[in-house]
Fold each of these.
Amino acid sequence: MQVLVNGAAAWNTLVHVAALPEPRSQMLMASRHHDGLGGTSAGKAVTLAALGVDVTLSTVLGDDDEADLVRGALALDGLRLLTQPAAGGRTERHVNLMADDGSRVSIYLELPSGPPGPPADVLAALDAADVAVLDLADSSVPLLAAARERGVPVWCDVHDDDGIGAYARPFAEAADVLLVSADRLADPRAYVRARVDAGSTLVVCSDGARGAIALDRDGWWEVGAAPVTDVVDTNGAGDAFLAGLLASQGIGTAERLAWASAAGAMAVTTSELGAPHATRAAVAALARSVRVCRV
């Protein structure tokens, strides 16, 4: 299987605090901090590569020191990197405040734009792809239609979509497989049902340590959270969840949802983005402890 992932790769500073700050003047002490690879598309790509999937990551990078750091972090077996030049030469950067309960605030330091329209090498990668994972980014919007024209299945992760905001709408509407978080949804089941009724073949709504719900053409699934003894960092857990679901194609839906839960759980055991330490054997073993059932 060949997968094209399009979207963000960044160099981030992650600051761990006991709780997210209230909106007032104050001083906080960080428990720890580090710099590292960021970006939802990078998190998916590194986890897919770890799970043995042939993945191409298309992203926007500058010509600065941070771009070199991103390239170095993405120099992995099975991962091909296609880059477009960032306007202004600056690579995407965030400061992420990470609270002990898993909540997060991302402060964007740089959010560069790339060239208009998909470059020829990205379209060639789309032609060769079995699946296109198109993340929330301006560069992904024209690829939604291009993938449809080519008959390439589209997977989208719309994160904390509220079902109302305009930006995520084209992604939710184009997705064959759709992932969303319950964080901002007033009625997650209604959102999921609406997307399947509109044409998605599988929609999964994750809810952190409470697991996930999913709906396909045959009905609802309830997905338990894989057991984790030590939560180090939740950054990229959702990206790993999608990677586990995608990397397990060819087995039953229940087993694939268990793989997704297991890969997401492995992501929270490391300070690195996603689950670059995952293996197929390790995810398969952990997946056997995940309860997935029809409801």
Note: The chain has nine helices and 14 strands.
Amino acid sequence: MANLRALLKNRKLLAGAGLVALLVLVAVWPEAVPVDLAPVERGPLQVTVDDEGETRVRDRYVVSAPVAGRLQRVELEPGDPVEHGGVVARLLPAPPALLDSRTQAEAKASVEAARAALGRTRAERERAEAGRDRARSDLERARSLAASGIVSRETLDMRDTDARAAEEALRAAEFAVGTAEQELERARAVLLQSTGGTGGRAIELRSPVDGVVLKRLRWSEAVVPTGEPLLELGDPRRLEIVSDLLSADAVKVRPGQTVLIEQWGGEGTLQGRLRRVEPSGFMKISALGVEEQRVNVIVDFEDPAEAWTALGDAYRVEIRVVVYEAADVLKVPTSSLFRRGGEWAAFAVADGRARLRTVQVGRRNGLEAEIVSGLAAGDRVVVHPSDTLGDGGRVVPRTTS
């Protein structure tokens, strides 16, 4: 009987000790960590270089006073249309000074030189027109051959680039002709003033281009010196975008790449094409006072002018230069990746536990990253893993209320 009582007593002690041990185990047992999960999936990936940009009229003309004199009041206001050859301002030359024959001869020589320069620019314009026509013909031929599979896509792109360059060369030649015409008018005005041939009449300053008044630098009647800027003219339908990229980003872009134009004030995203990466950089002080090396890049609009007609000169936009684009890659959110030693890693969730995976990352942008190895489609990874999460840790998907 005594042995039975002792056995029962030992059993009670053992049961009590087991209960205490169970309570201690439950108390120290790690709880499952709530986490956010994202799937590893295949899909499109686009990598861009993003920055702010500013629109500007591609070709600007400054109408200045060819000679010293009294400027009559300028009636034109910013935004008013002007035509090529139309009068934009009038200037009453100052009384002619007593000039010797040598100075008058120099003025006549300047007129002849300006006339010769005008002839040269007109010849260059004709040559640019011939080059444009030839480039268009080559492009059409390349398109026909590409449709038949005779030439490659790269060859077609080269012909398209040549055609665009020829168009730009023609426009540049046309603007050079307008500038040369203005220089000739200026030389003639100087000659008239030196010989007293104005007869007290005002000199009419004419527009070298069809467009609008961008800026009115002088408007009240006043005496102005030779070369004083009076008006700034340009064609607002010929806009481009200039953006200063960090030099580390500028090396990633090249002419011909697609550009997405966003945050411009209108609906949708505009399409553009990177035309030029300038060869020289410059230093710029950021808003935080940090010295940065910047490089200007020039972007042309691909959409018709009707799509961005609300934009004007010096408007702010945001550009995204597409440096890589793929239709089907294995990808994860970049917020699921972290550095572990010198490698990339992520936590994949299986059977309620986080498993540490070393991964090889390919291209990435601010939101998504390409996975080359280490994960498979259908896996789930932890987004924004905390420092307390370790390999094999218990996790539960976070619930949203």
Note: DSSP finds four helices and 21 strands in the chain.
Amino acid sequence: MYSWDDPDDRVAIAQMNAELRHVQLDLLGARCSTDRLRLRFSVENLAQHAERDLLRKAIGHAVALSDYYLSIQKEIPEDGMPLSESQFLLAVECVSGYLWEQRDAFLRVGRFLSDTEKETLHPFFSYSLLERVRLVELRGRRLPLPPFYQKAKAMGIANLPEMTHMASLTFVDVIVFNEQVSERALFHGLVHVAQMQILGLERYTDLFVRSFLRTQAHFNVPLERQAFTLEARFAAHPSEPFPVEEQIRLWLRERRY
């Protein structure tokens, strides 16, 4: 491990940070290119019509970079949670209560998965899970921000997830789509259903809130990162099944949440 007390180490640290600045610029360029791609073409069109080799290589590079930088993030000393333990427990209670309330509100208007959807997704999810999930399409409407967002912002919690910009949100076993149901957004939502089912809602919420408060970034929460990773794997190789619920249990055993 480097030490600022060693002159040679100080030179190496300076070189490391200089290279990191170059990497930051390169990654910013890659992000801008990806944003242009995202704005022009839908996920479904890319998954179905992009050259397979190009798409697989792009996904492979992105996943490798994500894994590398997230492994570094885990080693960064924590600054401490911005909330006291009592405030944290209250935050977990607010989030889990909100998830249950929304679940109950949308359950009665949700539809079950179609036979076609079940046939497509059964190689990835257990049939018992697919049988209980309900889907809701808002079609032109957007979910309002949760009532506790204003209080959270007043407490200094920033970068709260922009729910109105998300394709779907999962409330226990009900997936609500801000627009229409898409295959990829449905897969993402089902990953969260499986996570909540295996972990239990209280533990899921505890892990999610704790990780979010530590990283201050929705996409860096391991539960969310896993959902995006598995979603991307499904989109790239829809004909190559893998058991999502086993992946969740594996991450749980390895304490990756």
Note: The radius of gyration is 20 Å.
Amino acid sequence: MTRANWKTPKAAAIAGILFCVLLLAVFWLLRISVPTDPLESGDWLRTSSSRVAIALNLVPFAGLAFLWFIGVLRDRLGSREDRFFATVFLGSGLLFLAMLFSAGAIVGSMLAAFALYRDTFVDSMMFHFARLLAYNVINIYAAKVAGAFMVSTSTLLILTNLAPRWIALVGYALAILLLFGSYYAGWVFVLFPMWILVLSLYILLENPE
């Protein structure tokens, strides 16, 4: 494939769809395996470690797909991009990736520590610290950074006419839920990949070649 092929709208769309599928798979595996209460007892380490491990192995691929999506979309904006919102767009996207990988590393460390200290780890202070840390990174900080990414991306879509205005308006509405509702309802995190999916499908359908 030529360099131009890697930069087509279709490349951004495929990367966005892949990111959505992988992140939703990660979210689903974790939701059916790990209780939502960050103060839970840790029984999932004994019963669901294999499903959690599968989810963690998908995280790097989801992150790389998202990074590719950001790169191709930014290239499509080109000289039309607003420097302020483009900076927030890129910075919030990279921050989200950093937090996603950090949370994955924390949970992976919990699995490794449990394998070494199976009888004592879930009763230790270290388990509860790591569990609360992973919860805060994803449900509070990563969710809010994802909201900032949606706001900046939606603004760029309006300024550059890269996508219909309704996609941007939906992005604003969902971003508000992420910014203010993530602490109360963990499920709102799925709104982020679902919005990326809608945007990616639009790009793909508008640029089939």
Note: The mean pLDDT is 85.
